[in-house]
Amino acid sequence: MNPEMLFHFIIALAGIVMVLAAASDAVRYRIPNAACAALLLLFPMYVYAAPITIHWENHVWVFLATFGLGYLVFLKNWAGAGDIKLLSVISLWAGSTHAVLFLFITALSGGLLALGLGAMTFMRLRHEKDEAIKTKLSKTPLPYGIAIALGGLCTLALLLNPALLPAKG
Question: Both ends of the chain: CA-CA distance in Å?
């Protein structure tokens, strides 16, 4: 397999794993550890196959920072462990070059997802008392893995364009 084909194959595999993680979260409200592990294991292959030199150390620092902050968010019970693991491992792929855009797309997608699920829940419960609606809306689970995966897929699209990758060092 030529290097360019290998590079595209690894990006495609990572995309498939992200879609499967999102689908699992949508159906079961669980992000499989295997999905996060697969993305973690695919990253060194991406670094090896990339058409330019990837400064993987910067990517690792972004991953560690995301995981550390995510762990604090998890301790506050503001996000699930699967969400934090998926967010962290995709931030490894984004690195410092694309991390802000990845997080922005993830946050925007998550907000739209929350609005959509909230509206659907409200429509389903619109004939109940106001207090019951508020209680059920606040307890509606949010499969945030969908938003994280969407941010990740956008990041992968950016990684496919070598002109958008960090310059050789």
Answer: 26
